[in-house]
Every structure is written in C-alpha cells, then in structure tokens.
Specification:
By secondary structure, this protein is mainly α. Helix content is 62%, strand content 4%. The strands form two sheets. The chain has a five-stranded antiparallel β-sheet, with no helix packed on it. The protein has a two-stranded antiparallel ribbon with strand order 6-7. It is elongated and about 105 Å long.
Length: 648
C-alpha cells in the first residue's frame, strides 16, 4: 500500500512538471524571435537595395535565400526529428537561426563608409563624396575626378551582399525545426479540443514579433547607416530621399542576440510530456521505445507515398502554394510599395505597418483558435471557415486600386523640359552644362518641378552650405516664365499633394481590417494540414507543406516579382565605377496595377483550388456516412446466426 502511494506521488510529480503550458510558453518565445527577425528583414528591403546598389530582383534573391536554406533540411527534420528529442532539436535550430542573423550584419563592418553623390558642399567630411554639379566649367573636371577616384579604388564593386544572403540561408536552416516539430509536439500531447486553441495562442503570441520587428526597422531606418562613424551634420539627405540608407545592420545585431537567448530554455525540457486529458494526465507511452534510424528510414518511402496519394492533401497543397506566392509578394514588397505610392519614408512606413497591421492580425488569429474550440469545428467546418474568411478579405482589397498618388513632375523623367517634346531629351537650358548621366541629386524649383540635379536645372551659382545650400539663376526654371529672382532651386524633391498622406492612412486602415478578417481562418487553415492525413503523418505533412511552399512560393515569388518591379523603373542609379545601381524612381501607376493585380489574381486561383478541396472533403464525408450506416444495418444480422441463415 505504501509502495502504491509513493508510486502515485511520483507519477503526479512527473505529470505536472514540466507541463504542456511551459512548452507552449517557450515555443512562443521562439516564434516571437523568428517573426521579429523575419519582419525586420522585410523592412530592410529598400535599405539593402540602396546600400549595395542592387536591383529589386537581386533583393528578391536575398529574401528568398531564407526559403532556400529552409528547404535544404525541412523534410528530413520534419520526419526524422519527430522520432527523437524534439525540444533539443528545436533548440539547436533556434541557436543556428541566431547565428545566421548576426552574420547578416557582417558586411557593415567589412565595407567602407557609404558614399553618395551630392551637390551640397561638406568639405569637413572626407568620407562622403562631394560633387559640385552646377552648370559651369567645373562640371567636366568633377566627372574626371570621379573616374580617377574610381581607378584608385575609391569605390569597390565587390558583391558583399552575398554575405547577407549566406546569413539568411543559415537563418532558414535553423528555422526549419520550429514549425513542424513544435506544432506536432504540441498537438501530440494536447487534448483534441485544446489543440486548435493552443496553436491559435502560439500564433497570436508569435505574431506580436512583427510589431517589434517593424518598430525596430522604423528606428534603424531613421538612423543614418554609418551612425557613430561620420559627422551627422555632414549628411545632406533626408530619410525621404531615395539615396538615404538607414542603419539596416543594427537591427540584425539586436534580433540575433535576442534569438540566441530564446534557444537555451529548450535544452532543459524532456523528450516527452504528460498527455493532457479532460480529467487527469497520464505519462506518455512515447518514451517506451526509441526506433533505430534504419527502421525510420525504411518507413519514410511508404509514408511519403501515402501522403502524396491523398487527393485532398494534394489539392490543399497546390492551393497553399498559389496563396503563398501572393503572400510572399505582399509581405516582401509592401513597405517598398507604400514608400513609392505615397512618398513616405521607410522609417514612417515601417512604424505604421507595425502598429496598425500586426495587432489586428494577432487578434484575428487568437479569435480563430477560440472559434474552433467554442464551436468544435470538424475538418469540413474548418475548411469552410477558411474559405469564407479568405473571400471576404479579398473583396476588402478592391478599394486599394483607387488609393494612390501620381508621380511628381520630374523634368526629363516624367515630364519634358519646358520647350521640349521628348521627355528624355535635354534642352537648350542645360545642353551645354555637361551634366553626368549617372547622377541623381534631385532639387525642387520654385516652379514646382523637380530636376535630377542642379546641373540639369541649369543653375550657375550657389549660396550657403550643407542643408541650407540654394542654387540660383537656374535657366531651366526661368524657361517656365519665372523671373531671374524666382529661378532658384533647393535640395530635395518637391513635396507631393496634401491628399497623399490622407490616402496613405486610409490604405493602412483597410489593410488592417482585411488582415483581421483573413486571419479569422488562419488556425482552421493550419489544422486542415493535421486532420486530412493519418495521425502518424502529421509531422511529415507539415514538413512537406512547408518544403513545397518554399520551393514554389517563397523562393521564386520575390525574385520574379522583383524583376517585374524593375521593369517599371523610370530612373536608375549608377555605381561610381560603372554599372546599374538601385532604382531611384518608379512609374507609380504601373507599379500599383502590377502589385495589386498579380496579388489578387493569385488569390482568386488559390481559392478556386481550395473550394475543390472542400468539395472532396464533403464527398469523402458523405461516403463515410453511407459506410457507417451499412455497418449499423449489418451489425445485428452478423451477431444473430439465425438471421444470417435467413439471409443465406
């Protein structure tokens, strides 16, 4: 009797510590860190593009490199990892993810200071490049100094952005264990009624990470890239300028160190947890037998075949691939889209995305898990809920097409010079100035027109220095009928119309509501992955899903859409030693229809496929009902031998 009591006490101790909720909290901490870093990476797209002078298609490759690293190990981790100590495997992955994040910041410490061409004089700063580009004989000498400086190695064209790509690959490899192993581990030990709610809580807590990621991106984008290394008073460009580069590297240092701390608690969790039941918990029987790697490998082929011959799973998989293409495009290029459409700085855009979009998204996920638990939605109910919330959010995006601002008037880019028919041609007001073609140093004239540089405006005198520099007697401004006294220009582009900012806020409000509606179906969408396959295939189904999403969505989408964005560039920047750099100005109307049109078309196709999957689920359910009815009718006959003789 005494032995029995001691055994019960020992069992209860093991049952209650550590609990499933402790694992949930630790896993949520990891999800928070990975989402924070992921959101910060999205927020730095334009900063990286400008710092390394690369086009959007190359930035798409960098963004897709995370998926490349992930797919290298996702299937192996998902299947083999589920047979061993899952918390420790997740912990090792999070540790590797932190190391990769720190590697992404490395180029800042091996590259020289950021140099941009400008007509503003700042002679006390030897690190930045100074260009006097008024319409005078000095212009040709300046161009010659550029060439000689390049030959001396002043500007190097080394592809240091590859280090950022490699760091992102390492980050992707580390992240591979968090989703499949974490979700399957949680689902294995949670009560069926609580599983969806726990996953909803996990996603809601994890999705708070992007709030901090975008806020961190906003802070870093407002700081000059070489903060602490150059005199800030010598910086003559503002965060609204297309040449501005924020301290993109600083956020990777912060998030990398944070991720390293998230890894350690997982190493102290046991291999198995007590199973959660409605009354009491029982020790799991999963610790009784540890299969050998050989046994696991032999079963991998048949398990994969069973998964890929599941018609419902395949339809669901293809639907998710198309959706993920739209999702990858939207998340990667939304900050860039808002900057270009509404003329906002990267700092302001990232801040407002974080505080207006992510909270509704988190609330939608939390309510999604609660709805599933409250109404006890089965597989068919989950699929229908996902479909209808997705369709509703799609209709909410239609007004996006009407929310935009026109391009500002830039002489020689969007409008011709006064007296000229061809937009691209120079005119008599600056034809003899010898203005360098590679230059982008915009100035705003008193006629409300932006010029590529003071040289292109035909200015021949200056006053002031740095921020307060003004260029006078600009022939191209005078050609608009302005008097000599009103023909000056100042640094920076001309401001957009006042309605631009109002439309920007309306866009963010609609986007927040659309995200909330869509996320009401997020937990059912993920639960479908676990419920349309046999229980022993749950980890593998999640792993294959994530693998296929990355191969056909996460990797190609940012690359091919980045190339499409490049096709609507109006003015390219140029590297000091030759070659095309980052785009300085886009055709906003083409950009809008390309971005929103492709995104919505992909979503429509995905929802058609999802409806086909729902139809198959309903058909399978009806067939199972008929089979169960037949069994009910035959059961009394099979139990009674006399009735069986009558049938014979």
């Amino acid at each position: 009797m005494e032995y029995s009591d001691n055994y019960k006490k020992t069992t209860q101790a093991k049952c209650c510590s550590p609990s499933l909720k402790i694992f949930l909290g630790v896993l949520a901490f990891c999800w928070f860190s990975k989402y924070m870093t992921g959101a910060y990476t999205k927020s730095t797209v334009t900063q990286i593009e400008r710092r390394f002078e690369i086009p959007s298609s190359t930035v798409g490759i960098i963004d897709g490199s995370f998926e490349m690293g992930n797919l290298l190990v996702i299937t192996v981790i998902s299947y083999f990892g589920s047979k061993f100590h899952r918390p420790k495997i997740i912990g090792a992955g999070v540790l590797l993810m932190g190391i990769g994040t720190l590697v992404m910041a490395l180029p800042q410490f091996i590259m020289g200071r950021y140099k941009y061409d400008t007509a503003a004089a700042h002679t006390n700063d030897a690190d930045n490049f100074t260009l006097r580009s008024t319409c005078s004989s000095d212009t040709q000498n300046t161009v010659q100094q550029l060439v000689s400086g390049c030959q001396k190695g002043e500007e190097e064209n080394s592809p240091t952005w590859v280090i950022v790509l490699l760091g992102n690959i390492i980050r992707g490899i580390g992240e591979a264990s968090i989703g499949p192993l974490g979700i399957s581990f949680l689902d294995d030990y949670a009560h069926p009624e609580n599983s969806a709610f726990y996953i909803g809580c996990l996603q809601s807590i994890g999705v708070i990470g992007p709030i901090f990621g975008y806020l961190l991106g906003s802070l870093c984008a407002s700081l000059y890239v070489d903060i602490g290394f150059v005199n800030q008073e010598s910086v003559t460009i503002t965060p609204q300028d297309s040449r501005w580069v924020g301290a993109w590297w600083l956020g990777y240092v912060v998030s990398g160190l944070f991720t390293l701390h998230a890894a350690f608690p997982l190493w102290f969790l046991p291999r198995a947890l007590p199973e959660e039941t409605s009354e009491q918990c029982h020790p799991s029987n999963q610790t009784k037998h540890t299969p050998s790697i050989t046994d696991i490998a032999k079963d991998f082929g048949p398990s994969l075949k069973r998964l890929l011959t599941n018609k419902i799973y395949i339809l669901y998989l293809v639907s998710n691939v198309v959706t993920f293409n739209a999702f990858a495009i939207f998340t990667t290029y939304t900050p860039k889209y808002l900057e270009q459409q509404f003329g906002q700085s990267a700092s302001k855009t990232n801040f407002l995305i974080g505080v207006t979009t992510i909270p509704p998204l988190a609330l939608g996920m939390l309510l999604s898990g609660w709805i599933m638990k409250r109404f006890k939605l089965d597989l068919l109910g989950s699929a229908r809920m996902t479909f209808f919330t997705a369709i509703a959010s799609l209709f909410l995006t239609i007004p996006y097409f009407a929310l935009s601002c026109e391009n500002i008037d830039v002489a020689g880019v969007t409008v011709p010079y006064q007296g000229s028919v061809d937009v691209q041609n120079l005119t008599s007001c600056n034809a003899g100035c010898g203005c360098p073609d590679f230059q982008w140093d915009p100035v705003c004239g008193q006629n409300g027109v932006t010029y590529i540089s003071p040289c292109h405006a035909g200015c021949n005198s200056t006053s002031g220095t740095g921020w307060n520099m003004t260029f006078h007697h600009c022939a191209c401004v005078q050609s608009w009928g302005m008097s000599a006294g009103n023909s000056s220009v100042v640094l920076g582009q001309c401001p957009r119309e006042s309605s631009c900012t109002r439309m920007f806020y309306i866009y963010l409000a609609l986007q927040s509501f659309a995200f909330f509606v869509y996320c009401l179906g997020s937990v059912p969408l993920f639960i479908i992955t676990l419920r349309i396959v046999d229980p022993e295939l749950k980890s593998l189904s999640v792993g294959v899903l994530l693998l296929v999403l990355r191969v056909f969505g996460g990797i190609p989408a940012p690359i091919y859409f980045g190339a499409l964005i490049d096709s609507v560039c109006l003015k390219w920047g140029h590297k000091k030693c030759g070659g095309r750099g980052a785009c300085r100005m886009y055709d906003t109307e083409s950009f809008r229809f390309l971005f929103l049109g492709l995104h919505n078309c992909l979503r429509v196709l995905a929802y058609i496929l999802l409806w086909m999957a729902i139809t198959e689920i309903n058909r399978k359910r009806q067939n199972e009902k008929w089979v169960s009815k037949d069994i009910e009718l035959l059961e009394p006959v099979l139990k009674d031998p006399e009735k069986l003789k009558t049938l014979k």
